[in-house]
Amino acid sequence: MFRKLPIVLSAEQLLERSFKKAKKIQIIDRSAIYKKKKTIISRTDSFSTSIISALEQYVKKFPSIENLPSFYQEIIDIKIDINKLKKSLGAVDWARKTCQMIYSKQSKALKKSKNIDFLIQKQHEIYGRISSVIKQIDGELVALAEAQNIMKKFPDIHDIPTVVIAGYPNVGKSSILRRLSSAKPKIAQYPFTTKEVHVGHSERKEKYVTKRFQIIDTPGLLDRPLSERNEIEKQALAALSNLADIIVFVIDASETCGYSLEDQMHLLSHIKKMFSSSSLIIVENKVDRKKTSSKNLKVSCETGEGIDVLSDEIFSHYKIEDIDK
Ligand SMILES: Nc1nc2c(ncn2[C@@H]2O[C@H](COP(=O)(O)OP(=O)(O)OP(=O)(O)O)[C@@H](O)[C@H]2O)c(=O)[nH]1
Ligand SMILES: [Mg+2]
Fold it and tell me: What CATH number has the domain spanning 11-152?
């Protein structure tokens, strides 16, 4: 969704690129004076318009945050300082307008004169004034490029039935996504391996209907108040609140994740209350290590036990009216 954002250059890069492009221009004319005059005008034209149009693209192609799906709005809010971003966009737009003004005013004077010294002087004036405007917004251009780099890495989320896998850190959420889809999230034996949301897909053809789910692996959540949650945990909550039709809550009863079953159950009761409109599937993972007598679904990502049953359970929640979503 954000992959096609234009590459935002720093002030120095933008000026260098525009100067280089302008320098290559050489106009041919039988009259030596006209040749010089036309070349100066053409180079000044090229320099100014390439800067103005780059600045225009940066602002125009930047997605309007208010019109984005709510999940992205929340993730942007977590990962990017929106006020700073708005300020940067405003500054870039101000620079575009200022450069446009400098260029239109001065280029009229250029076109009228035949005095080469005057033309060169005017050309340098335009170069100098535009360069100084661009240098003034260097910080904003860098901030915009940083914001875009973060956004380009956002997962591609679609408006289709969605399963969100959640639970304490290290309980096996990413292992479950790997088992249920072809996605390959990183798996490791330490908490907070997953630092952002990952997406996989699972589909089944049943008679004439293709049932397709988007499955989202989230970073681990600790059982603590929102005000104490870190940026990584907040992304999990953003996925749960904005995307989850079904929540697969993963428990590690073996406690090899490093967290007690009691704490995990406490988090579960919070999740139940917070996201009561989503369907909930409770899964005990790592049953190769410990199997409890609870009624929860039991799986092992190590041996594959129970994965088919989990998949059946997920697809049993598929609503036919969701097909057109
Ligand atoms: N024995 C056993 N180990 C498992 C099982 N599932 C996952 N693990 C191991 O548990 C550890 C954590 O697995 P992950 O899938 O990374 O867990 P996670 O919940 O995604 O972890 P975070 O991203 O850090 O929150 C890894 O060392 C896995 O190999 C299982 O069913 N049995
Ligand atoms: Mg993980």
Answer: 1.20.120.1190
